[in-house]
Structures are given as structure tokens and as C-alpha cells.
């Protein structure tokens, strides 16, 4: 591992290096890719927001998607998870084509993304936020007296799962509070917990540390690494370089919609193209020590 933050605790088993032998070059094949994308393009008027030739995400890793403002990170997230339409391109998740599927269907395949709490969600309780994210929320499928016992069983399974997750994220005492009353960090925890309601194989976190009090950053980092250690794949967009360099197994750098570099944190830190495109203002210092806003 290239970062001290990833060093195993004394007595702990050394983590498996799933990226062993993978060349740090854009579009490189991964030994066990959970997500593969080809020729993904999206323009807004004359502006090409995303133009990714080939991208693979290795199963069971924490992969960071980084790049300057406007590089296309959020647009790529939206496209891959079915919340925006591509102009061109195909991608598969766990070997099945998912391009063209709605966000709901992509989530059912096991690939979910977090969303910032909308105004409507902030007016609901923490527990209701969780239940709304549960599978089988389309009540009409369970309509009718005949199906009621099935629906009840599903609801009690969902409640149990929601409470288990709230306990895991230390939000159980807040179950009846309005989500809008949570702090920035607690909201991020709730967003993560919500995404786990569908029992995904891969979670995509959009700026998990934005607006988080430093006291909660370590807790959030711990949750993210636990997800990976339990076998989940994590792809996240983040601007905080300490966070990125500290927990990522692999980093993908976007600039002007294209993948300009990929590699381990150490590869990215020393990549001159990345320094020019993104880390430029901090040319003279190691990226891991730069100040973050
Ligand atoms: N719905 C839209 N309509 C028009 N232009 C858009 C739209 N969504 C994104 N863009 C443009 O596409 C480009 C990529 O935006 P995107 O938000 O994906 O970048 P980003 O890397 O996530 O940036 P940031 O780090 O600032 O969030 C930007 O130039 C943005 O202005």
C-alpha cells in the first residue's frame, strides 16, 4: 500500500493488493472489473462534459474519481447510474449491460449512488428516509388484500434492516428526528446508510466529506473502509486531497471529460500531467500535504 493511512494495524492481516501488476495508465484493464465503460460521451450544447474511451473499476476496492471543477465527475456518475442520458456509449456492471436502464433499475442490479438530502427528504424523519430507500417501495405491486401479508413481511424486513443500518451509523437515537435537523456529517452518514438499504455490491459516493465537521471525518472514513473490507466496491468523488490519498486503492483523474491518468495514490502524486491539470497550484509540495478548502 502506498499510504500510511492504509497500513495494517499491528497483528492485522496485510490487505490483499487487488491492483498488483496493474499499470497506471488511462483505460487500463483490471484483473476483476465490476464496472466496465466504453465510449461514454455526453455533451451539453457545444460543451463535451464526458468523453471516456474506456474505464474499468476493480471489484472490492476504493476508487476515487478526481479532477478539477467542471471535469465531468458528477455527469459521469449520473450517466453510469441511470440519472442522465448518454449521447453514446455502453457500460456493464457485474457482466450485465446496464446502459439505458433507469436509476431505479441500475440500483436493483446492485449499483447505487448517494444523493444529497432534498428539501422534501429533510422534512421526513430519519427512519422514513431509510424506509423510502428500501427495495420494493412501489406499493402498487403489493396492492390488494391477497398480497397484504407479503407486503407486511417486506415492511418488517425493511424496518429491521433500516434499524440495523441506523445502529451501524450511530443514527438510531435520531430515528424519529427530522432529517433536516441533522448536522452536515450526520446527513452524510444518513446518505450512506440510505444507499445500503438495497444491499448493493457497489456504492458511489458524491463528495462524502463535503460540509463535514473535522470531528466526523475519521468516522466517515472508517465507514467507507469498512464497506470495502466487507467486500463492497466504493467509487467516490472528492476534492479533499488528504482523504483521497489516505483511503484510495486507486485513483482515476478526469480533466475536460477525459480520463487523463489512473493509478495508485503514489502514481497520481507524481504524475506531471495531473499536477499540471489539477494539482498545479501545489506544484512544489506533495499532493498529500496540500491545504484543503
Ligand atoms: N445539465 C447541464 N446543463 C449544461 N451543462 C452542464 C449540465 N451538467 C453539467 N454541465 C457542464 O458539464 C461540465 C461538467 O460538469 P460536472 O458537474 O460533471 O463536473 P464536475 O467534475 O462534477 O465538477 P465539480 O467538481 O465542480 O462538481 C461543466 O462544464 C458543467 O457546467
From TrEMBL:
Molecular function per GO: ATP binding
Xref: Gene3D superfamilies: P-loop containing nucleotide triphosphate hydrolases
Superkingdom, taxonomy of origin: Bacteria
InterPro entries, A to Z: AAA+_ATPase (IPR003593), ABC_AA/LPS_Transport (IPR051120), ABC_transporter-like_ATP-bd (IPR003439), ABC_transporter-like_CS (IPR017871), BCA_ABC_TP_C (IPR032823), P-loop_NTPase (IPR027417)
Domain ABC transporter stretches: 35-281
UniProt-listed SMART domains: AAA (SM00382)
Alphabetical UniProt keywords: ATP-binding, Nucleotide-binding, Transport
Transmembrane domains' residue ranges: none
The keyword Repeat appears for this protein: no
Segments for region (Disordered): 1-20
Keyword ATP-binding among record annotations: yes
Any single Pfam family the record assigns to this protein: BCA_ABC_TP_C
Signal peptide annotation: none
Compositionally skewed regions (Low complexity) per UniProt: 1-14
Name of the protein in its database record: ABC transporter ATP-binding protein
Organism the protein comes from: Nocardiopsis sediminis
Lineage, opening ranks: Bacteria, Bacillati, Actinomycetota, Actinomycetes, Streptosporangiales
Amino acid at each position: 500500500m502506498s499510504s500510511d493511512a492504509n497500513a495494517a494495524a499491528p497483528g492485522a492481516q496485510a490487505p490483499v493488493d487487488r491492483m498488483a501488476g496493474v499499470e497506471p495508465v488511462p483505460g487500463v484493464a483490471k484483473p476483476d472489473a465490476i464496472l466496465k465503460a466504453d465510449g461514454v460521451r455526453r455533451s451539453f450544447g457545444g460543451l463535451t462534459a464526458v468523453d471516456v474511451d474506456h474505464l474499468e473499476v476493480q471489484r472490492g476496492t476504493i476508487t476515487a474519481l478526481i479532477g478539477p471543477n467542471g471535469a465531468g465527475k458528477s455527469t459521469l456518475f449520473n450517466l453510469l447510474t441511470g440519472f442522465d442520458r448518454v449521447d453514446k456509449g455502453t457500460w456493464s456492471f457485474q457482466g450485465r449491460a446496464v446502459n439505458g436502464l433507469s436509476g431505479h433499475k441500475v440500483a436493483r442490479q446492485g449499483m447505487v449512488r448517494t444523493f444529497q438530502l432534498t428539501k422534501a427528504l429533510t422534512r421526513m424523519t430519519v427512519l422514513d428516509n431509510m424506509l423510502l430507500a428500501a427495495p420494493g417501495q412501489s406499493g402498487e405491486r403489493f396492492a390488494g388484500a391477497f398480497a397484504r401479508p407479503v407486503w407486511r413481511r417486506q415492511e418488517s424486513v425493511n424496518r429491521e434492516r433500516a434499524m440495523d443500518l441506523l445502529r451501524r451509523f450511530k443514527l438510531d437515537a435520531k430515528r424519529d428526528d427530522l432529517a433536516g435537523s441533522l448536522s452536515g456529517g450526520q446527513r452524510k452518514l444518513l446518505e450512506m446508510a440510505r444507499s445500503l438499504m438495497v444491499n448493493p455490491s457497489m456504492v458511489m459516493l458524491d463528495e462524502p466529506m463535503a460540509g463535514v465537521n473535522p470531528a466526523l471525518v475519521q468516522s466517515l472514513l472508517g465507514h467507507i473502509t469498512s464497506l470495502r473490507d466487507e467486500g463492497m466496491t466504493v467509487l467516490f468523488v472528492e476534492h479533499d486531497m488528504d482523504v483521497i490519498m489516505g483511503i484510495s486503492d486507486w485513483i482515476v483523474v478526469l480533466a475536460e471529460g477525459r480520463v487523463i491518468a489512473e493509478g495508485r495514490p503514489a502514481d497520481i502524486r507524481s504524475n506531471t500531467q495531473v499536477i499540471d491539470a489539477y494539482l498545479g497550484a501545489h506544484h512544489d509540495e506533495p499532493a498529500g500535504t496540500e491545504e484543503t478548502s
